[in-house]
Amino acid sequence: MSRTIIALDFSNKEEVMNFLKDFKEPVYVKIGMELTYACGLDMVREVKEMGHKIFLDLKLHDIPNTVKGGMKNLAKLGVDIVNCHCAGGIEMMKAAKQGILEGTPEGQEPAKLIGVTILTSTSKEMMNEELGIEGEVIDTVIRYAKNAKAAGLDGVVCSVHEAKAIHEACGADFLTVTPGIRLAGNSVDDQKRVATPSFAKEQGCDMIVVGRSITKAADPYATYCQIEEEMN
Ligand code: C5P
User: Fold this and answer.
1) Are 153 and 81 in contact (CB under 8 A)?
2) Residue 36: which of 77, 86, 95, 96 has the closest Cα?
3) Counting beta carbons within 10 angstroms of the beta carbon of residue 30, is it exposed (0 to 12), middle (13 to 18) or buried (19 or more)?
4) 177 has which bridge partners?
C-alpha cells in the first residue's frame, strides 16, 4: 500500500471527483475539515466506495466523554485512520481509543488512531510566545508522542524533522505520519517545518501527507507516482 497520503483539501464534490478521476488504482487520501464541512460525511462514504483508503483528519479535541462519542460515530464509517489532538491529554486520548473500539462494526478492523503533536505550521516563536509553551518544539513533540503512546494510540502526526526522535522515544513500530512535504522548488505556503519526500524517507517517516504539492501540480498523478517512487 502507498506511503503517500494525498490531502483532499477541496471544497466541493466536483473538485474531488475531477481530481480522483486520473487515479486509476486505489490510493490513500486524507479528508479533513474543509471537505467534510462542505460535503458532510457522505463524501467519506463515497470516496471509500471508490476503493480508496481514508485518513479522516478531523483532529478531535474536547472533553474526554465528547471525544469518545464523536469517535464512536466516526468508527462506524469504516475509515482507516482517525486522529485527535495530543494537547487534549492522556485521558482524552484514551477516551478516543475507547470510542473507536466501541464504534467499529463487528468483524472489521478498528481504525488506527494517531495524535496530532505540534502542527507543522507552528514555529518555535509562536509556540513560546503565543501558546506559552517554553523550550524547543521537539521537546513538546516528544512529550506529546510519549503521552499518545501511553494512551494506547498507534502513532502521531509530526514534522519530518521529529520522526527519528519519536521512533527512538516510542519505538520503531509507533507510526509517524508527516505533513509539511514540499518538492524541491515548490512554494512553502503557510507551512513552517517542511521537507522533501526523500528526506522524509531518510528520517524513517512511515507515511507522508502531501496536499498542494500534488493537488496543485500540472500533472497530479505523475507527481504522486514520482513521490511514491521516492518514498519506496
Ligand atoms: O498542502 P499541504 O501539503 O501543506 O497540506 C498538508 C495537509 O496536512 C493539510 O491538509 C493540513 O491540514 C495537514 N496537516 C498539517 N500539519 C499537521 C497536521 C495536519 O499540515 N501537523
Assistant:
1) no
2) 77
3) buried
4) 157, 207
Contact between residue 53 and residue 1 where contact means Cβ atoms under 8 Å apart: yes
* C-alpha distance from residue 67 to each of 142, 150, 185, 204 (Å): 23, 17, 40, 30
Cβ-based neighbours of 175, under 8 Å, separated by 6 or more: 112, 114, 154, 155, 156, 206, 207
Q: Helix H segments across the chain?
A: 13-20, 33-39, 42-49, 64-75, 90-103, 124-129, 137-150, 160-170, 197-202, 212-215, 220-231
Q: For the chain, 232 residues long, give each residue's pLDDT as a single digit of tens.
A: 689 999 999 999 999 999 999 998 999 999 999 999 999 999 999 999 999 999 999 999 999 999 999 999 999 999 999 999 999 999 999 999 999 999 999 999 999 999 999 998 899 999 999 999 999 999 999 999 999 999 999 999 999 999 999 999 999 999 999 999 999 878 778 777 789 999 999 999 999 999 999 999 999 999 999 999 999 8
Which residues lie below 8 Å from residue 30, measured CB to CB, with a gap of 6+? Answer: 5, 6, 7, 8, 54, 55, 56, 57, 209, 211
Whether 141 lines ligand 1, by a CB cut-off of 6 Å, is no
> Which amino acid residue places its CA nearest to atom 2 of ligand 1?
211
> What does the alpha-carbon distance between residue 72 and residue 65 come to, in Å, rounded to a whole number?
11
**Dist. CA 211 → ligand 1 center (Å):** 7
pTM of the model: 0.94
The protein residue with its alpha carbon nearest to ligand 1, atom 21, reads 119
CB of 178 closer than 6 A to ligand 1?
no
